Amino acid sequence: MSFIVAETKIKNLNLQEFPKTLPTKTKMMGEMWAQTGSVIASVMFVAAIFQQYLPRQLRYHVERYTQKLVSFVYPYIQISFDEFTNDFRKRSEIYSAIQSYLSAKSSTRAKRLKAHDVKDSKSVVLGMDDNEEVTDEFQGINLSWASRKRTKNQTSFSFYPQADEKNHYTLTFHRRHRDIITGSYLDYVIKEGKAISVSNRQRRLYINNPTQNWYSYRGTKWSHVVFEHPASLETLAMDPKKKEEIVNDLIMFRKGKEYYAKIGKPWKRGYLLYGPPGTGKSTMVAAMSNLMDYDVYDLELTTVKDNTELRKLLIDTPSKSILVIEDIDCSLDLTGQRKKKKEKDEEDKEENKDPVRKMREDQENTQSKVTLSGLLNFIDGIWSACGGERLIVFTTNYVEKLDPALIRRGRMDKHIELSYCCFEAFKVLARNYLDLDSHELFETIARLLSETNMTPADVAENLMPKSVIPDAESCLKNLIEALEAAKEKARMMAEDEAKSEAEEAAKLKRKNRRRKTSLLKSKRNVMEHKKEIRESIQEKMRMMGEMWAKLGSMVASVMFMSAVFRDFLPVQLRNHVELYIHKLANFFDPYVQITFDEHTNQFRKQSEVYSAIQSYLSIKFSARVRRLKAHDVKNSKSLVLSMDDNEEITDEFQGMTFSWASVKRMANQTSFSIYPQSNEKKCYKLTFHRRYRDIMTGSYLDHVIKEGKAISASNRQRKLYINNPAEDWNSYRGTKWSHIVFEHPATFESLAMDPKKKEEIINDLIKFSKGKEYYAKIGKAWKRGYLLYGPPGTGKSTMIAAISNLMNYDVYDLELTQVKDNTELRKLLIDTPSKSIIVIEDIDCSLDLTGQRKKKKDEEDKEEKDSVRKKREDQENKPSKVTLSGLLNVIDGIWSACGGERLIVFTTNYVDKLDPALIRRGRMDKHIELSYCCFEAFKVLARNYLGLETHELFERIGRLLGETDMTPADVAENLMPKSDVEDAESCLKNLIEALEAAKEEAKIKAEEEAQQKAEKDENLNAEKEA
């Protein structure tokens, strides 16, 4: 009781004293906040003085030694991974992989999450929110991942809007674990992240965008949607044996990475699907995609401007994809009708054509300049190895219209005919649609299917129940009625066709009489059409003038505002102040600095010296730097780590110490630009004592640049280049050549060729690579020309890849149709370095370089041509003015010595079409014929594909190869196993069957040609007698 009373008295006493102590505590708290504010104000004042008034050299040293002090105390290392790789906001693949990896970690550990509505993901993706941190563990090591956001002060105006926020991930770990983290851990994270991305996304269906949209803001070459087609090979209406053969072929391809590398062939396979409409070609493509889990790239050739853009689209398709060209016979003029010299009667017929119709046809033909040669090189040339693990599928309703070179083995490896519905296909449809395996009406349906043609699509439509209560028997009866109606319709159509042929002949005579009358009317229509065009052009010019006036007004406003907000300090005074401050600082500071900027001009072209220094520092000192930055370098074999911004390291050379720093400057200026501009300017700064100036500017810098270039060369992969159109050369970051990594597996060991001939070529190439002094001694440019000629499928493109891999040279694929004139051709040559191979594939198809030089015209050629036809011919000749003389001077004239150590390779299927001056010795020094497969070449293929050195069937195959012509590509296709159970002997038997079939086909063709010749001679004799 006494305890309770005492406690009550104490409480009352505290309550009485509280009002007295409250003002005192409030006063103390106020004084404390006042002191804190004073300290903060002092710090801000000192920081402002330090930033604005302290000399730059002194400020640099203070910051430098402050960082060294922090680095000495702080034992942790940081690596930054930026979200975007350039000013065009291309997302880094490494950043995406890390985001996927951390999404799995952060969803269970992070307190603050951010939901991402990813379009192609199967579910909502959860990731770390900004400034959130999670921990990870690897081999007993604890690591920390943080999501950061930087805000930049964007002061430039651009037609391409730029985000003010830059996201990046930061990885922090103890410095004792540097080797494990930069080695195995980062590779593990990227691999796991990519696997999570693939498992979480859905398949996609892509379509190529028009070229004018590629370089717009965030423009891409392909647009896509989620691909959710339900087709599978199980539900496909097809002969089960044929279906099983296709499934085995696809599975063998998917497992064949090492096998394709062993045989020296790109990991790609072509499928030709042909047959009447409605037979399931598109459904087959969808079923292949679902079986292989590949994305589908639907290539619309009519929107592709030329061969160069076709290659760029191929570059932009990744591995694990199906590239589809549907109805290829309708896409472009690729039906094998190569350009020939016109006969006189054909010219007369062309002149009598309707001019308006001819103008419309010319406009249609100028939409796309993709050639047969360009498409052939696209699917089976040196570009076909880009990406790997790719299926190329052509579909057509009229296979006989396609050029044999387009669908030969090696390009379209497997030909799949999807024809009218057979009984086996009907049974699949009956099981799918009606759940029937047998029925009494099946026999009637089988008989009707053999008597008439009906596509699987029509059969399926008749089998589909049309009411809520399904009745299988009524559906079968509907099909029987449809088959009988189709049979009757086919009979009536045959009768009608006979009548229509007779009527057509009569109509043709009447049409010829009316043509002369319509010609006069069409000429008047042309004049009216030209008048409309002139009026339209005038209206567009007026609108363009108004647009430029508004643009000029806007630019003037921007310039006026920039002038208003400038500093008011006179320029002369400001310059004098800065000059004397620098002099005063230099008097006390004994150190010299050299700055190496990242970009050399306003087009943001990276300096070669900067790149060499970056490679030198990244390899030499990545083990010492505390803060690193990861670079997603496209052509590098591994992840590249370098110093982060404002990081510093020291280097030693001949006992002297040099300091390197990575610096980022912010350019605070208001600018107007069509292209995206960054306010960040990066550079490396080299600092050294002035007593070392001579050694540094002499041997040390040469040492750094030489070492850096050697490191870059050892770390990079070979490249395959294609020339860009001339109008893109001077655009933002424009270059004359675009490139990708060249990963073709071909080698001389795997090349199907006579071993003696192969050895001769290898010796010639090795001798050339060692011949610098020899070529200088004989006074000849250090270059060598190779002419590769032979039928399609004999390995010309594979030979180029083998030469590149042997010599370790980059390949420059020169597309002559993209070169405007001889001057541009010389500029392209200047821009190709040494240790390169310049390739012109199918040179007989590239331009008019076939030796038909200009001759004196006949009198009848001097007659005035129709104006519309003349205009068309001028437009056709306008794209390229490269002449035979210009090409000769480039490969063997005074320009041929530019660069040195260069191979020039021409390929052609028709060597007899080329001008002798183009392929003479000294230009094309070595002529290599790649002909049909001989027995020695077959033995190389048997060793590559089947691992066989000899077999009892070899003798028979040798005899057949001596009796018939078959390309190495066809032989290789027959030797390739199509399933896991197919052995070497069955592959050899397949080849024997194919050789015997080819022999018989050649015999029948020869008999038909002999018969046609005899009939032609007989008709000529009859005409002479008449």
Report on this structure.
With 1026 residues, the protein is α/β, with parallel strands linked by helices. The chain folds into six domains: 76-151 and 163-201, no CATH class; 206-334 and 368-419, Rossmann fold; 425-485, no CATH class; 589-665 and 679-716, no CATH class; 720-848 and 880-931, 3-Layer(aba) Sandwich (Rossmann fold); 937-1025, no CATH class. A hairpin with a 2-residue loop joins strand 18 (647-653) and strand 19 (656-666). It is globular and about 120 Å long. The N and C termini lie far apart (152 Å).
For this entry, give a set of tags.
1026 residues, 6 domains, Rossmann fold, seven-stranded mixed β-sheet
Number of strands: 28
- CATH architecture verdict of the largest domain: 3-Layer(aba) Sandwich
Return the average pLDDT rounded to an integer: 77
Structural class: alpha/beta
Our count of domains comes out at 6
Summarize it.
It contains 31 helices and 28 strands.
Layout of secondary structure:
Layout: H1 2-52, H2 56-73, E1 76-82, H3 93-109, E2 113-116, E3 125-128, E4 133-138, E5 141-151, E6 157-158, E7 165-174, H4 178-200, E8 204-208, E9 222-226, H5 240-254, H6 257-263, E10 268-274, H7 281-292, E11 295-298, H8 307-315, E12 321-325, H9 328-331, H10 344-351, H11 355-365, H12 372-380, E13 390-396, H13 404-407, E14 414-417, H14 423-434, H15 442-451, H16 456-463, H17 472-564, H18 571-588, E15 591-597, H19 608-621, E16 627-631, E17 640-643, E18 647-653, E19 656-666, E20 672-673, E21 680-689, H20 693-715, E22 719-723, E23 737-741, H21 755-769, H22 772-778, E24 783-789, H23 796-807, E25 810-813, H24 822-830, E26 836-840, H25 843-846, H26 867-877, H27 884-892, E27 902-908, E28 926-929, H28 935-946, H29 954-963, H30 968-975, H31 984-1025
Parallel strand pairs: 1-16, 6-20, 8-11, 10-13, 10-14, 11-12, 12-13, 22-25, 24-27, 24-28, 25-26, 26-27
Antiparallel strand pairs: 1-7, 2-3, 4-5, 5-7, 8-9, 15-21, 16-17, 18-19, 19-21, 22-23
Helix pairs in contact: 3-4, 14-16, 15-17, 19-20, 28-30, 29-31
